[in-house]
Structure formats: C-alpha cells, structure tokens
Amino acid sequence: MAQGSQFIPPGHQACAKCGRGIDPARALYSNEGDLVCDGCFSTADIAARLDRAARGLAYSTVAAAVFSWICNPFFIVSGIAIVNSVAALRYLVRADVKQALGSSHSTLFVLAILGLAIAGARLLLELAAIGLMMAAG
Ligand SMILES: [Zn+2]
After folding, report:
1. Where are the alpha helices (DSSP H) in the chain?
2. What is the 40 CA–ligand 1 centroid distance (Å)?
3. Do the strands 21-22 and 35-36 form a parallel or antiparallel pair, or are they unpaired?
C-alpha cells in the first residue's frame, strides 16, 4: 500500500482496475474474470450488491404497478407499487448507488417513475370510479 501505484514487484501482476501490483497468492478475480487486488475486489462487490438491489426495486415496482391493473383488492397492490417506487427513487438518488449503476442508472430511474405513474393512474381511476358510483347513488 505504501508503494507507488506504478510499482509492481517481480512475479506480481497488475490489478486490472487500479494497476497496483498484486501478490499472486492473494489475487482475486472480479465478476468479469479480471485479476484484481483485494481493494478493488471489495469495491466491485459493493457495487454489484447496490446494482442488484436497485434493479430489484425498480423491476418489482413496475411488476407491482402492472399487476395492480389486473388484481387490486383494497388497493393493496397499488399501495405496494407506490411505496416500492418511492423506495426505489430514494435509493436511486444516492450518490454511491448512482456511481455503482453507471449507465443503467437512468434506465432504472425511468422504470421507477414509470411504475409510480402506472400505479398512480390505476389508483386514480379506481377512486374516480368509486366517486362516480357514489355520485350516481
Ligand atoms: Zn486494484
């Protein structure tokens, strides 16, 4: 760690991410199969976890929102979709999450907003229908 980033001892290989020399006995492989140092390995691991969590939130938001149009007893599914989309949006505005996601960040952000719009539209439609029924008496 104290040595310069360009110094690679003989018999050691350079980290694919930061270029630091790696002791072959402690070498690790990233998800992409690159040889990386332990520092970059744990960073990549955190990024992968953040990425998975963000994807899970965004996709489940859209799934719940679409499902709320099919089956929505007592607005439960609408509620789940809306709470989920708010959680997804709050998660996606975090700087570390944004950095971990890279180019897929905007896609997931759009998905979370889309889920909120789909679920919100369904909820408003249902409330309007109830309102009309009550008005018609
Ligand atoms: Zn590294």
Report:
1. 38-70, 76-92, 95-101, 105-136
2. 4
3. unpaired
Q: The whole model's pTM is what?
A: 0.73
Residue 52 has pLDDT above 70, yes or no: yes
Between the alpha carbon of residue 135 and those of residues 27, 40, 73, the distances in Å are 71, 63, 22
The answer to whether the CB of 49 falls within 8 A of the CB of 101 is: no
Residue 43 lies in a domain: no
Question: Same structural domain for residues 54 and 118?
Answer: yes
> How far does residue 39's CA lie from ligand 1's centre (Å)?
6
Distance 92 CA to ligand 1 centre (A): 26
Give the tens place of pLDDT for each residue, 96-110: 999 999 999 999 999
The range of the structural domain enclosing residue 67 comes to: 48-136
Q: Do 56 and 122 lie in a common domain?
A: yes
Question: Is a pLDDT exceeding 90 seen at residue 93?
Answer: yes
pLDDT band at 121 (very low <50, low <70, confident <90, very high): very high
